[in-house]
Amino acid sequence: MRLKDLAEHLGLSQTTVSRALNGYPEVNEATRLRVAETAKRLGYRPNASALRLATGRSGAIGMVLRGSYEFGPHTSEFLGGIGERLADEEIDILLTTVESYEDEVAAYKRGAASQKVDAFILHSPTLHDERAELLLDLKVPFVLHGRTNIGQPVAWLDIDNTGAVERATSHLLDLGHRRIALLNGIKGRTFAEHREIGYLAALSARGVSFDPALMGNSVFTDEIAFRMTQAMLELRPRPTAFLAGSMMTALGIFRAIRQAGLELGKDVSMIAHDDVFPYLNADNMYPSMSTTRSSMRQAGTRMAELILQILAGKPIEDVHELWPVELVLRESSGPAPAL
Question: Which of 33-47, 86-100, 132-146, 266-280 has the highest mean pLDDT?
Answer without folding.
Answer: 132-146
